Amino acid sequence: MRLIVALLVDFVLWLGIDIFSSGSYTSHPRRDSNKTLPLCVVNDDGLSCSYNGLCVRSNCNTQETHCLCDPGWKGMYCEALDLVPVANGSGLQDLLTQNRTSTWGGSVLFDQGVYHMFFSELAHHCGIHRWISHSVVSHAVSAGPEDNWKFHKTKTLLPIFSHEPIVTRDPSTGELGLFVSHYPHGSAADDNDSTCHCVDGSTSSALEKRCIHEPGLGHNKTMYTYFTTAHQPTGPWSPLQSLEHETPEGQKRFDLNFAPLILPTTNRSLSLLAWTRWDIWTATDWKNPHTYVRQGPAPNFSNPHAQWEGEDPSLWRDSKGRFHILSHNGPRGIGGPEGDCGRHLFSATGQAGSWLAAPLPLGGCAFPRVNVSFVDGSSRTFYRRERPHLIFGPHGRPAALSTSVIDSPVGPGVPGFQPPQRDASYTLVQATHTGRHFDSTASEKDSC
Length: 448
Ligand SMILES: *[C@@H]1O[C@H](CO)[C@@H](O)[C@H](O)[C@H]1NC(C)=O
Ligand SMILES: *[C@@H]1O[C@H](CO)[C@@H](O)[C@H](O)[C@H]1NC(C)=O
Ligand SMILES: *[C@@H]1O[C@H](CO)[C@@H](O)[C@H](O)[C@H]1NC(C)=O
Ligand SMILES: *[C@@H]1O[C@H](CO)[C@@H](O)[C@H](O)[C@H]1NC(C)=O
Ligand SMILES: *[C@@H]1O[C@H](CO)[C@@H](O)[C@H](O)[C@H]1NC(C)=O
Ligand SMILES: *[C@@H]1O[C@H](CO)[C@@H](O)[C@H](O)[C@H]1NC(C)=O
Ligand SMILES: *[C@@H]1O[C@H](CO)[C@@H](O)[C@H](O)[C@H]1NC(C)=O
Ligand SMILES: *[C@@H]1O[C@H](CO)[C@@H](O)[C@H](O)[C@H]1NC(C)=O
Description:
The structure is a single chain. The protein is mainly beta. It folds into two domains: 2-81 and 438-442, no CATH class; 103-431, Glycosyl hydrolase domain, family 43 (Tachylectin-2, Chain A, 5 Propeller), CATH 2.115.10.20. Helix content is 4%, strand content 31%. It contains two helices and 24 strands. A hairpin with a 5-residue loop joins strand 22 and strand 23 (398-406). One 2-acetamido-2-deoxy-beta-D-glucopyranose binds next to loops. Residues 1-16 form the signal peptide. Residues 67-78 form the EGF-like domain. It comes from Seminavis robusta. This is EGF-like domain-containing protein.
């Protein structure tokens, strides 16, 4: 069976037929005329295919190789998510409802047939520029693909200031950890009176003139990572606990972008691995702040394919135990693959100094920000598309991508921009291709 699959691939390639873009495999090797791009390496356990596939020989008579990507992935190095056009209204689009509320991305957990999203929401109908003074954390649910990935808010869980939630499950106990950036005494802004009252989800609609700018972090205020635990995604959630103890070098920490992953307790020396946009952290007991240790930058800078990671990470572990990061990186508002778009990084161990990216500029685009296709045939370019989180379905495979977006192609620095900026934002969910059957766990590594 394995051999037949591999032979079929070789045969089809030999005939020069492209079954990949429409058929049963997720990837087609771009027959790239750019000879400077390295070919993938067979029998490397998928390392040169970003740990999202396996490298095979394209033809038994040549040394040419290509990546066969796992479901949900595509690209020359399986560095890109294999996304379908966005269903209209998918995700959490609360700007066009009577609610007129901006949201800023969500972390999603599948539990007993329901997708639970934990997301940042901007209070008082303001936009994402007021995140430091207005962000709260809320919960929403979806039936997933059967409901076009529409999410429905249930309630607000954490007050101002709570931001960038990430939910993760302890694989040993089933317990949930919800990690957020938090300031426990209300607005974390430097304004003396930082509460604004907006109208349409954008900050420029504020009734108070002073509310036009993006506030900074207030004097003597902090944005530490906190966490809360629950046994069900619907709660009840425990009181927030600070991870402040684990920051020996400074009083103030802000916008930690803390992206945790709780690991099975089979390895007692490691209970949690996290990435904060700058550094890898580990903990031997994820519930004990005193066990958190900063390990240093994630990328392996001694490798020429190392890339700076970008911002807004999320982290997962694949079925073979390798570690993956999604982030966004690149100059904001600039088009093309070297502008800001999704980035994918990968590592066999997750350790600091071990993370790599595909050998493309900035590691390639894991998901686009420009010309995003919608099912109605339209396409949209977002000024910002950030906070990527993969949504895993019942089979543990990537089922969809959740991101925050500003639905305007222009912003400061982009030609055509006129102030005031509309910073109204929502949470977009875009499904991956499903029903494709190649799986690197079941394939022949090299049939020749
Ligand atoms: C998509 O949704 C928007 C907002 O609800 C609506 O204005 C638009 O007509 C919809 N487009 C289609 C093709 O349904
Ligand atoms: C709008 O707000 C109402 C009341 O809070 C809520 O029931 C509804 O789900 C919200 N709409 C969306 C799209 O979340
Ligand atoms: C806050 O109040 C102080 C003291 O009254 C004043 O000096 C400062 O300018 C105010 N800051 C802002 C942002 O309004
Ligand atoms: C700063 O915060 C610390 C700890 O909460 C507090 O003891 C101190 O009084 C604060 N300082 C000012 C100037 O607010
Ligand atoms: C357990 O964790 C330690 C510390 O990160 C790591 O060095 C070691 O390789 C891990 N062992 C296994 C079997 O995963
Ligand atoms: C986006 O689409 C426009 C119009 O088709 C095209 O001119 C532009 O090159 C595209 N940009 C990218 C980055 O693909
Ligand atoms: C970093 O890359 C170098 C060169 O490829 C390699 O020898 C080394 O083992 C890597 N370090 C880690 C921690 O993976
Ligand atoms: C060829 O590959 C190099 C290295 O990744 C890249 O910088 C360059 O833009 C590529 N050229 C073309 C025409 O794709």
